[in-house]
Amino acid sequence: MHEHMHDPLRKIDDLVTALEDLRLHVGPADLQVGDRKVNGQLYIALANACQRNKAALLYGGMGANKTTLVNLLGSAFMGLSFDEVENLMITGHPEQTEEKIVGFIDPRQWSCPPASSSSPFSSSPTSYSSGGGAGSIQVLWTPWARSRWKVINEINRFPSGKQNLFLELISKRKVNYAGETLELGDTCYFATMNPDFSATYPLDEALLDRISISVPATQPDFLASLALAEREKEVGELAESLPRLSQEEFESLPGMVASVRLDSQVELSIISLLRDFTLCERAPAFDKTLLSGGSKPSRGLCAGCHYFNNPEVCCWQTDEGLSDRVRQDLRSYTRAFALLLGFGSSEEKIEVLRAVAPYVIWHRLTPNRTMLDRPPYYGAGRLQYAKDLVEKSINRTLNERGEMNMIFARAVDGEISPREAMEDLSSSDDPIARLDYVRALERMV
Amino acid sequence: MSLSGFMDRAYGVRVRGKKRLEENKGEFLLGFEDLAGRLKERPKRAEVEALAPDDSGAIVDLVVSASPKDRREEMIWGLLSGLAAEKLSEPLVIPPRNYSGLGMVRGTIILDSTAQNKDKARAEAKASGGTGQTRNARAHHLGEKMVGGWIVVRGGAGDYLGQEMKGGGIVCSSCGDYAFRNMAGGWGVVKGNAGNYLGVGNSGGRIAVKGRAGARAGWLMRSGKIRIGKDAGEYLGIMMGGGSISVGGKAGPRAGWRMKGGLIEAAGYGSEAGDEKVGGSILRRADL
User: Fold this and answer.
1) Alpha-carbon torsion A321, A325, A326, A331, what sign?
2) Residue A295: closest CA among chain B residues belongs to which residue?
3) Choosing a second label site near B37 at 20 to 30 A (CA), which of A153, A186, A219, B112?
4) pLDDT per residue as tens digits for the range A263-298
5) A398 to chain B, closest Cα gap in Å
6) Nearest by CB to B21, which of A263, A310, A370?
7) What is the ipTM of this complex?
8) Could you give the angle at the alpha carbon of A29 between the alpha carbons of A28 and A31, nearest 5°?
9) CA A360 to CA A363: how far, in whole Å?
């Protein structure tokens, strides 16, 4: 069987080249990963397409090639025509209903004789009824619900109540309607979103947390605009020329991503990054994710705290902590990027983590207003702010935390006593040492 | 899995560590609004001090450029003005604002509404659609809770001047109500007249008013001294338990009403002086 399967990674490389050659996506190489520079919008979408049950959000103004790019990739990865992929997409607007999104009860079941397994109704290619037994309600699931390439266009145009539908869908991987359940299977999720307009609704924090990665989509720059001017044919027509992955190749991608091994250095940096953002000396159980209402760093929680205003520390610089989903997302996107770029060494994977992590976390955080308002962020550079925090955390883990980590590790392994380790760590004021390691050692005493 | 092995693989041979974080506090302060934004609803002096710049020039700039919007911000500004005065070797000269010199420990503040400031205020009022007339509003809570240092008010002070002060001194031309309320130490000089309730509940300190004082001066005072150069209003030293009040002119009706201790001395008294008095002395100067 594998003899007929081409290398999907080579096909993805061909796809990247074809998208540029056909002037279907000509974004700038704005994402530096080690010594490579790639287009962030394209490669983050590709990394998401290589995984299942992760959601990527493309955020940007109108005409920034968000939806078209995702549909082009859908066409290439699913082996469908561009029109077919476009038809699978759902678009947000206030009148969008659950029936239009996921499915509706088949009205024919009450006017026709009871369906038999051979009836044209249940065997119709367009009717995907889930009712199996007698008396069960037959639901016609929409093509979007059945598709394994789900695009939610303009997600912030869905009212808040409808947004909760996606929350359930992404986290449970199944959809319920009229008592019937549709297993969604392993699916690629993409969403697009405009900045705040009059007809948009704010995205719920819980939904944002379930969005694994988010990338800004920018308008074409001068050179890109020149290149786009050379595009003669319609997108749908040009899309026919794109290389397409076979079903087997598409299915093989998650396994290939999972086979990328992450080194201790990367794993340690990921965990430390999470703890840097989540630990808070003043939060219940030192966990910033438990904070609510007026008890936030931006509302004066940190006043007088030892760490407050210290540029080396991340905790006071954002209101939110990071959930364990972030750890999973950081691991999987680092793997996917390393696979796509052919990076194998530990140093290269750390560079991948540095490049990917800001995109995984920036939409989940509210930066400290004071810091965000100052140059070089000017109140708008949230992603750059997240990049700088990630850089600080990873550099600190790799360069400054060696000694404390070794002391803690030796105590955990029983090479030194917990008391001895606590004494050694007592002179360290690193938040992880003080709030995580010392507490763990106290429990061991 | 051995955690030491994990760490060994992560760090290889280059294990180094820095035990303490760099301390660069205060360097990110953008302005007064930023400072206020980082503080709690009822900020303490130590919290403001932790955020305020160390450099005296920077802290004075912060004080001068600030535009407190509400009572909370006024209190923060007040604490900041005290901190600024403490850092300067020469007096801090600023226009009077509510809570100037709040909790000040040392240094000198001169609160001066100069002609330049008035012109500016007039121009601003005009630009914002007003008549160009400055409101003759007095700053309140000047020198509140101060512990040391000097405040000189060039002009009149509003209400609650030197409230709860424990040390230091305040000089002003005149003051509103509740001046030096609950004063525990230090001194206050009012070159003109004082409003009602001067030195209410005092447990120490000295107050001198060159002009007149309103009603109920020295109400409930337990210790300390009040000197009023001219006449005092009604109920002078009402329910006082200690300390002394001296009035150059005449005290109003019911001076020393229900007083339990202390001394009141005046040139003359209105009706019902010392009514229901339990202790203490009420003396007429002519009788001395």
Assistant:
1) positive
2) B40
3) B112
4) 999 999 999 999 999 999 999 999 999 998 778 898
5) 7
6) A310
7) 0.81
8) 125
9) 7
